[in-house]
Amino acid sequence: MSRKSVVIIGGGAGGTILANSLRKNAFDITVIDKSDKHYFQPQFLYIAFKGSKENMVRNERSLLKKHVKLVKESVSAVDLVNGIVKTVDGEYRYDYLVIATGITSNASLISGLAEINEKFGDYHTNVEQSKKVWKNLNGFNGGTIAIGQSYPLCKCPPSPLEGAFLTEEFINLKGLKGKTKIIFFTPYPRAYPAEKVNDEVEPLLKARGIEVRTFFDVDRIDAAGNTIYSIEGDSIKYDLPIIIPPCKGVSGIRYEPQSILNTDNLIKVDKYTCRVEGFDNAFAIGDAAAIPTSKSGVDAHLEAKVVAKILNKGDAKFDGRTHCPFDVGYGKGTFVIGSYDEPVIRYPITHINLFMKHVMAKIYWGSLKGTYDDIFDIYFKETNPAKLKKKYGK
Predict the structure, then answer these.
(1) Of 188, 216, 247, which closes a domain?
(2) CATH of the domain at 302
(3) What are the helix (H) ranges across 314-363?
(4) What is d(CA 347, CA 385) in angstroms, rounded to the nearest whole number?
(5) CATH code of 214's domain
(6) Is the distance from CB of 153 to CB of 103 less than 8 angstroms?
(7) Cβ partners under 8 Å of residue 150, min gap 6
(8) How far apart are alpha carbons 217 and 198 in whole angstroms?
């Protein structure tokens, strides 16, 4: 039996894990990405608020198994009707397609934000932007720090509050607590969207003197007047703004049909199989997929494994599992754990949970290659939301 061709667009966590999980004797696998550099994006947080200099980039070729072909090209068009992926330099026909293009930040969508982020940085775009945040924090001597997300969709839902908590920790350790006001703003009705997680973090915000502004949808920013305005008519005056820009699906790729995209430029899929709506041989995973779960590396990992099992002729469904690590500062953390059937549970904030976050970061590169698959299977089984709900459910 001849091997089937699989084209994967995007060499991030989901695309890499999927490519390495497909059977060598059954598929000709091609990964297409405009860059051959693979970044561990959660490290942006620690560059911005801890000044981390840890190496967080690898060559994508070194992360893929030898039989996987890597093409460094920009995809210009995807014709799902005829099974063709077009790049600047050529065409690639496929039997199966997987879109794993992620999401990108776009500060230009909000008036004044691009100017602000160019000067003060942000910790969701790239390494250089994260370094700007760290530089500005170190140069801060008092005033108002306004930190938050400008749009409901962003990478890693805990990250906005992680930034707020780590900002307060930095300010406190620097001895500027009495000279500083920290305002956290969010478009959601709570500091953290999921109620049970909010029940854990809201008391911490209050105890650490972080003011929370909910229902604050950023409309525009007056850079000259140091003011952030919301759609609702509220405003925040700042001395140091740390603003997460809007995130959208990757632009620049022309899809046929265009109807597979939603208003955020994400790919419409079946939430259980990750199949693109209307196409049995096309899938979307990770941040690129319009799935009602968090945009996180763990979700991309689990979705990639589901698609791999489907293509390897197994029966698999994605259960909507989320497992997002959450650093609340001062050496403690928690996890945001839930699924389609089990709403996010109330999970404790402990030193060990932050330790587990750092362990997961350390083994990230090996996890892309499948080195720790058996360990992850056991870990995710033991931290099943239904199982944890019996222990922690309140």
Answers:
(1) 247
(2) 3.50.50.100
(3) 351-362
(4) 10
(5) 3.50.50.60
(6) yes
(7) 110, 113, 218, 243, 244, 245, 246
(8) 19
Asked which of 247, 262, 279 is the last residue of a domain, the reply is 247
Tell me: do 227 and 254 sit in the same domain: no
Terminal-to-terminal C-alpha distance of the chain: 54
> How many angstroms separate the CA atoms of 251 and 238, rounded?
32
Helices (H), 52-145: 60-63, 113-120, 127-138
Residue 129: domain span: 106-247
> Tens digits of per-residue pLDDT, 212-263?
999 999 999 999 999 999 999 999 999 999 999 999 999 999 999 999 999 9
> 314 in helix, strand or coil?
coil
Per the CB < 8 A criterion, the answer to whether 269 and 99 are in contact is no
If asked whether residues 73 and 178 sit together in one domain, one would say: no
Q: Are residues 263 and 360 in the same domain?
A: yes
Residues 319 and 370 in one domain: yes
Closest CA to 98 of 17, 1, 2: 17
How many structural domains comprise the chain? 2
Question: Do 309 and 388 fall within a single domain?
Answer: yes
Q: How far apart are CA 289 and CA 98, in angstroms?
A: 10
pTM for this model (two decimals):
0.95
Looking at the structure, tell me whether residues 384 and 292 fall in a common domain.
yes
**Same domain assignment for residues 171 and 283:** no
In which residue are the tokens 């608020």 written? Answer: 49
CA dist 30 → 15, 33, 129 (Å): 10, 10, 31
Question: Comparing C-alpha atoms, which of 323, 295, 309 is closest to residue 384?
Answer: 323
- Please choose, from the candidates 100, 103, 101, 105, the residue with its C-alpha nearest in 3D space to the C-alpha of residue 116: 105
Task: Give tens-digit pLDDT for 364-393.
Answer: 999 999 999 999 999 999 999 988 888 876
Of 142, 234, 237, which Cα lies nearest the Cα of 187? 234
Same domain, 233 and 255: no
392: alpha, beta or left? (left if phi > 0; alpha if psi -120 to 50): alpha
Rounded CA gap, 198 and 215, in Å? 15
Which CA distances in Å does 147 have to 123, 191, 212, 228, 349?
A: 11, 12, 10, 11, 22
pLDDT tens-place string over residues 18-74: 999 999 999 999 999 999 999 999 999 999 999 999 888 999 999 999 999 999 999
Q: How far apart are CA 87 and CA 74, in angstroms?
A: 6
User: Rounded mean pLDDT of 88-94?
Assistant: 93
Q: Is the pLDDT of residue 329 over 70?
A: yes
